[in-house]
Amino acid sequence: MTRLIFLGPPGAGKGTQAQELAKTHAIPHISTGDILRVAVSQKTDLGLKAGAYMDAGDLVPDALIMEMVRDRLLQADTLSGWLLDGFPRTVAQATFLSRLLQEINQSCDSVINFDVPDEMLVERLLARGRKDDNEDVIRNRLEVYRRQTAPLIDFYQSQQLLVTVDGSQSIEEVAAQLTNAIQ
Ligand code: ADP
Predict the structure, then answer these.
(1) Which residues have C-beta within 8 Å of that of residue 19, sequence separation ≥ 6?
(2) Ligand 1 centroid to 58 CA: how many Å?
(3) Partners of residue 111 on adjacent β-strands
(4) Residue 14 bears catalytic tag
(5) Ligand 1 pocket, residues with Cβ under 6 angstroms
(6) Beta bridge partners of 4
(7) 88 in the Ramachandran plot: left (φ > 0), alpha (ψ -120 to 50) or beta?
(8) What CATH number should be reported for the domain whose range is 2-182?
């Protein structure tokens, strides 16, 4: 049983590693960014509300994200474990998640903190070229990360759940660090 949270700035490589690890551990990869992008493309209620925040590189309001994650974690496939990628991103979301897990009698094994220098993040995101990957929006996403998400490093450190990996290394090297981290 594996239950993990991937924490880190945009462009840190969370999604790439999450995809592989979810496959090898046979657990669902729950990426809030992916769920939101599907909602936007399908023009669902959630998508219509979230799109403008995402385009600006701002966080989608907590209430919408919380409802979305609650629905997802109550689905049956999560009984085999899960990998949360891109959630939580605020202290309010992290507190919500702790309560939700308590309610459903689950606990998180580890929080993996992907550490990557800013210059490298900007470079990687510009190379990726998603709709929200232009330079101004990237700067805003990094700023939002520092202000709203980075405090979760201390939050999870104080619960002794945090493991930091050096995300500036190659995909293979980061994967190897991850394998060690979750033994
Ligand atoms: P990245 O980590 O590469 O910036 P994501 O795919 O994780 O991209 O997220 C894309 C966008 O979706 C974010 O910039 C934000 O607007 C929104 N989003 C994703 N997850 C959350 C979350 N947990 N809380 C608020 N907004 C979120």
Answers:
(1) 29
(2) 8
(3) 5, 162
(4) yes
(5) 10, 32-33, 36, 53-54, 57-60, 65, 86-87, 89, 93, 141
(6) 83, 110
(7) beta
(8) 3.40.50.300
- The residue whose CA has the least distance to atom 6 of ligand 1 is 33
Q: Assess contact for 87 and 33: CB atoms under 8 A.
A: no
In order, the DSSP letters of 78-107 are GGGEEEEES---SHHHHHHHHHHHHHTT--
List 130, 139, 146, 147, catalytic entry:
130
pTM across the whole model = 0.95
Helix (H) or strand (E) holding 151: helix 151-157
Residue 128 a catalytic site member? yes
All residue ranges of the chain with pLDDT < 70 are none
DSSP letter at 13 equals S
Look up 141 and say whether it is catalytic. Answer: yes
| Residue in this structure with the two tokens 């599907």, named with its chain if needed | 38
Query: Of all atoms in ligand 1, which is nearest to the CA of residue 31?
Result: 7
What is the Cα–Cα distance from 48 to 58, expressed in whole angstroms?
Answer: 15
Q: pLDDT per residue over 132-166, tens digit each?
A: 999 999 999 999 999 999 999 999 999 999 999 99
Sequence ranges of the domains in the chain: 2-182
Specify whether 147 is catalytic. Answer: no
